[in-house]
Write a structure and sequence with these properties.
By secondary structure, this protein is α+β, with helices and mostly antiparallel strands. It folds into two domains: about 30 residues; about 150 residues, Sandwich (Chondroitinase Ac, Chain A, domain 3), CATH 2.60.220.30. Helix content is about 15%, strand content about 35%. Strands 2, 5, 6, 7, 9, 10 and 13 form a seven-stranded antiparallel sheet that branches. A six-stranded mixed sheet has the order 1-3-4-8-12-11, with no helix packed on it. It is globular, with a radius of gyration of 24 Å.
Amino acid sequence: MARQPWELKAGVLLPIALVAPAIWFLTSCSFAKRASARDTSPAPIPVTGPDVVPLHTDAVTLLELPDGRQAAFSPGSAEAAVLSSETETTLPTTLPNGNIFVSGMTINAIASGAGLTTLPAGATLTVAFTIPPEYTGRTLGLLFWDSTLDENLGGWIDLRTTLPPGGQGAIAPTVTPDRRLTFSGNFPGTFVLVALRS
């Protein structure tokens, strides 16, 4: 039985003129799919110090500290932002009893040269903390430093139950499948991931 021109025999190499276009087509399609999947989530902008970072006006801006802590600004949130790491010793004051410091960061949003206490209507800021493995199974919380409390001396707000004055957001931070505690609201400031004492 005679072979048809399109039939291949095992072990026969195809001429490069036939193979190259097929490889190009397959890799181009594969690359296009990967690129479009990546385009839906912004590439993080690495932040290593308290530098002013311009924010995108037409897309989400994702700032990320070296350990994976993130701040994502929706378009039109502010003109620029500063993301700084916090340690237990750099916080405005000690944490309330029953809270163990895990991680902290301060996020400043800037518009027209001034710091913002709340973002414009409809704008959101999402903070995300990577949960260290040693805190698996622990009850976690997220605290926010509100400088207007106690006659402007300031105090910690537990974002599991309360929002600051003028604050809007989803009460109760959530834990994502990739082990991040996230919270979305309309206010920048100092956020601290805590573990609750048992």
